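re: ur question from yesterday

yeah so i grabbed the chain u mentioned. its 464 aa long if i counted rite. heres the sequnce exactly as i have it in my notes:
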Amino acid sequence: MAHFSTPDAPRFSVEVYQNEYLPEGGREVNAIITVTSAGGGATAGQPTPAPAHAGYEDAPGAYDGAPGRGGSPRAAVVIMVDCSGSMDYPPTKMRHARDATAAAIDTVRDGVAFSVVAGTHKAVEVFPGNGQLAIADPLTRAQAKEALRSLSPGGGTAIGTWLLQADLLLDSADAAIRHGILLTDGRNEHEEPQRLRTVLDACAGRFTCDARGVGTDWEVEEVTGIAAALLGTADIVADPAGLTADFTRMMETAMGKEIADVSLRLWTPKGAEVAYVKQVAPTVEDLTARRVEAGPRAGDYPTGSWGDESRDYHLCVRVPAAEVGQEMLAARISLIQPVPDGAGSPPSPLAQGLVRAVWTDDLVVSTAMNAQVSHYTGQAELAQAIKQGMNARKSGDAEQATAKLGRAVQLAATSGNEDTAKLLAKVVDVLDVAAGTVRLKAKVAEADEMTLETRSTKTVRVKK
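ran it thru and got these structure tokens back, copy pasting raw so excuse formatting
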């Protein structure tokens, strides 16, 4: 394990779990990389408040983002609230959305730049409404909550437009940590699917975003796709009454972020190649295609913003075949944060770890599966089995749905993923857990179906 830190950032550490032994001629090296950040320096994970005497417009609490007037805020957040016509069905849905947004605003810490955007077929700044963001303090939080009274349902849904507006607002604050919270209750019907994908590509790496679907009339793939592209979380709030608690938790987590734009840098020796890189805890997310070249035989994979937390990654590297007794460094893992423009020197690693390969003729040693690798291989298969099973169920292929969801029940049980097991039990009748024998339920509540799909990538960690 190796760890480094900067004065005002969390302390990072990297742990590598693998079976480094390969049989003669073996090429595939698997490792689980546990990355942990702990401690936020002097701020303990809290953004530094802006000076009370600087960085404000004439209106109390407004922030103009201009250089030389107190500097930039440490963090910025934009809350995007769906205000399309469907939010009026039932009428309590809009009220719960307003209440949840107010609770999130109350959770924004002093000194953080923030804004609220009403999303329909267009994006309207609800607060502060001047093309900038406000700096959180008791007065601006009160003003923002008062402005929420103007939120009313009407119009269509064009989520890409909301995200572009959030990007503009977050960019105006020039904050180190930029985050969005997006709530929708419907499908993205007022812009082409390609438009949303283009916007997500443009926003990726510029800010992170948590996405929530309320009710059951939204598309799981749209909401989870937003969160995946912008390195945030996705979830369902089937009952609008649960929005306040969920928004509060999301904002509390966002306020705990202390360091942004961290990348997992992988260096591999000549002749080796990265087969894949996946985040496997707390959720499964394939990062392989997001590689950005970072010098000879090195590539960066984005991980987003960090507070006090721990995540696991599965690395698979193919190395050149070798004879018994040989060994090599299969990969070097570094946690990297970009240096400011004009800094000149390359970034120092926040933490590092090594993945090794050793060739042996001991069959017992070379065929032993590392517990961490085995566990997360099963968790990735679990997520895939649920996706395939639910797709088969929707298409009417009962045989395929039964087989895949039965396998999912089996995997959830063996890995100790009790939450997923409970969700599966609402979709299938479990006849034999160990054998994965199930029967599809004749009737399944839409909320239960969507909850299973939305949360299918959530994993549990290896029991120590």
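noticed a couple things. The chain has a mean pLDDT of 91. also The two ends are 18 Å apart (CA to CA).
anyway ttyl
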